[in-house]
Amino acid sequence: MATMLNIRPVSELPVSGKRVFVRVDFNCPQGKGGALTDDSRIRAALPTILHLVERGARVVLASHLGRPQGKTPALSMLPVAERLAELLCPQVKEVRLTDEVVGDGARKVVADLRDGEVAVLENLRWEPGEEKNDEALARALAGLADFYVNDAFGAAHRAHASTVGMVKLFPPGHKAAGLLMLREIEFLSRLVQTIERPYVVVVGGAKVAGKIGVLENLANLADAILIGGVMANTFLAAQGHALGRSQIESDRLTVARNFLKRFETSKVEILLPTDLVVARGPDSPGGEVVEVDEVPPDCTVLDIGPKTVTRFALRIATARTVFWNGPLGVFEKAPFAGGTLAIARALAASRATSVVGGGDSVAALHAAGVADKISHVSTGGGASLEFVEGQTLPGITSLRESGSSQ
Question: Which of 8, 41, 158, 211 is catalytic?
Fold first, then answer.
């Protein structure tokens, strides 16, 4: 029986002896020579893979890696398959890698799989039809399996051949969400549907343009929104503050001003920085703490100040639900990491259900050593933002057994 959002969980599929196509998100960062620098996305998919292996499925994994221009050898899935093999040992003796996405070679590798064995298709984006949601590619991919499972929440906001096109070719009862996908939906739903209050949203990062829709949707749901990072500059400038040489989206000043005006008489509390850490530039050896209306004309804002940190942390401490997306300063530079790391620790210390999305925010959690104290760390920055903004995610919609709304 289909459950959450009319989506069947992978546990309900009769997979023994069957070929199961699993869309995963193995788009791992790489260093020189293609070596993986972070395998967390592979680890996140292990519960679903092992669930299928233990039930005798013949598992076919598919993901994209980077942005190849055609069949780019430097963006082969080989290092991913090798790391996966290490992580699956000893449950799985060998992970096979196809030399193409579809075609005779890929079909033979899949056909030769036995119960409990695993194959990885080559980089999906080697095929131009992947991002175009090409019907021919979708049919070729669907022909490799008896069942379809999507565990790639990080790609759920993309209508590609492997996330949408091929899914509709499976009959009812033959498609499902993986364990990671189900967990993402469960926790993100707590931010927009089954909310435990007080609900506090922390939003940082660089641009108002990419997050104004999220802010407007969450402002109708949250009890407080705390805004920091470079995007706070635009809101502060909209209030009339002079911020020296700080980055400001001048074409978004009206949007920011209208947002603040719209919610100034509502119940939601919008908190902006009251003090800031400034310097000549991000490579400066240190910064100076100033009030928000005292930024020197030759300086730029690089972090929130200590009074703002305290104010934000106190508000987080009152929350029962917290969502955080985006750093509060240039945290990759040590002199300006204090605000972001302090907020990470405040989340970890709170009693709230805490959900963190976005690569930079997740990196900050690890830098602060508190990632294991967060209720849920989302694997999809862009997808998580679109989910909480209220947008329809094609990769989730395609899994539904019947037409219901997100």
Answer: 41
